[in-house]
Amino acid sequence: VVTVAGPSDRLSMDATLWVDGDKVVPVIPLLLVYHKPKWVLSVMSDPQNRPCLNTVLPPHYQQQELHPVGRLDYDTSGLLLFSSNGGLTQKLLHPSHEVPKQYVAIVEDVVNEEKLKEQLETGVETKEGIHTAELVDVTHLSAEESQNVWQQMRQALPAEYNVTDLEERGYLPKDDATPKKLLSQVRIVVREGKHRMVRRMLANCGHGVVELKREQQGDIVLDDNTLAPSEFRNLTEAEQEWAQSLVPSK
Q1: What span, in angstroms and rounded, lies between the C-alpha atoms of 45 and 171?
Q2: Confidence (pTM)
């Protein structure tokens, strides 16, 4: 039992609150913001017992039947929303509503910014059609920074991944390969959400994706300084107003 001294005290999202001996029933949020780490599946259960959303969503939110707004791939991190309103979920997901989603990707090789910008604006063909994106910015990583990314990627791979197989197939540089590929960071905005679309677009532009993270969806922004991986938060007042504006009228 923890006594709350005032409004500045912080509690965990799964804390049970009591006031004067009475249990406080939490208000069901319209949207809940989650910072998904890599190697968590965006499903509520997994037959292989890999980490998934039912292992991270606080129990009282599971009882309120919050559902994830779309998915992030197993190997993708970042902003994942949970919703209590099916109509709002459809608005956020359906491409006709063009809700922008911003991603930051670490990609192979030194990116030619003007060339990539033109490729994305013109449209990139994948097996699911032609997709466009807006290139926000490009940063070239140094040899040392690139080396650190490759090393961290290797060290963080789950046990089910065969490192030797990934090396042989060209997805991972051999540990003794020197120098390893230089990398670039690109930030792009898309208005669709097809399966692995961002990865496929960038790969088809000649830049395989090494790391991918979603930073923003609509007016909701993920800030690493205030929301660490695996943590949840409620909407800010401005975000709540934006989300409420998308809820279909009855």
Answers
A1: 28
A2: 0.86
